[in-house]
Design brief:
The structure is a single chain. The chain is of the alpha/beta class. 45% of the residues lie in helices and 20% in strands. Helix 9 links the parallel strand 6 and strand 7. It is globular and about 50 Å long. The relative contact order is 0.14. About 2% of the residues have low confidence.
Length: 265
């Protein structure tokens, strides 16, 4: 992974070159609508406070659990015995991006959502809250982490989430075989190029005609940037939005011209 200095330098480059986040100069009607009604939706939805209360609880929990990394591993914690609050502090997606996932689901109303990397279930809870009629299937490799996520879902009274445990390579194919189509996917698990591209290919094969796939940490390392570049160049990908810490991929044949945007967020 990149060092803090390298990441800061890359973020500065992104910030300088990205559109201003207000939609000015964006010539795609779809992206302008996304910026106006999703990215810049500043309403305080009821679920925000409830889910953030669960996040705060996790950040205060000193319990020690046994965790075996199946992906690139934690950038900050190298032991298999870890404190819940330490994992929460290093791995939970920031509120800003978690709530963006809620707004994406709420606005576009995907019916079948697949998440690779449940962690403690914060992003899962936001997506499930965005559309109570959606089915959210979340894959998590660490049983102890999945158990805590399930407790969070129970506390939040979310009943539209299914957690599939195990290595993504083994759990993703049967999940995709069981559901009708992937309308939206959030990939936040293995931060390596080869597995990321393999997940992308599998999700694409199981996708609807119009599908959104969101990748976490696209600038986390040189490998992830290479994977993001390959994904952008895929023939099925018609539109991408780079928000630096996440990348949003739209597969929609209605978009006749392939376009890529960097937008400040």
């Amino acid at each position: 992974m990149y060092s803090a200095f390298q990441l800061a330098k890359k973020y500065l480059q992104y910030y300088v070159h990205a559109s201003n986040g207000k939609g000015h100069g964006v010539h795609s009607p779809f992206v302008f609508d996304f910026v106006k009604n999703v990215l810049n939706d500043n309403k305080e939805y009821a679920c925000y406070q409830q889910i953030e209360s669960v996040r705060r609880k996790l950040l205060r929990d000193p319990s020690i659990i046994e965790v075996q990394d199946l992906g690139a591993g934690s950038a900050f914690i190298k032991t298999t015995k870890r404190a819940v609050n330490k994992i929460a502090a290093s791995s939970l997606k920031r509120k800003k991006y978690s709530q963006l996932l809620f707004r994406i689901v709420q606005y576009y109303k995907p019916a079948f959502i697949v998440e690779l990397g449940t962690s403690f279930g914060i992003t899962t809870s936001y997506m499930a809250s965005g559309n109570e009629h959606a089915t959210v299937i979340s894959l998590e490799g660490a049983p102890a982490i999945a158990d805590i996520a399930k407790q969070s879902f129970k506390e939040l009274e979310l009943k539209n989430i299914v957690v599939a445990g195990g290595d993504f390579q083994q759990t993703l194919p049967p999940v995709l075989a069981d559901i009708k189509t992937v309308d939206l996917a959030f990939v936040d698990g293995n931060h390596r190029k080869k597995p990321t591209l393999e997940y992308f290919t599998m999700l694409l094969e199981g996708s609807a005609i119009s599908t959104t796939i969101i990748f976490d940490d696209i600038h986390w390392s040189e490998e992830m940037e290479e994977a993001w570049e390959v994904i952008q160049g895929h023939p099925a990908v018609t539109l991408t939005i780079d928000l630096f810490f996440i990348g949003i991929v739209f597969v929609n044949p209605a978009f006749k011209v392939k376009q890529h945007f960097q937008i400040r967020f």
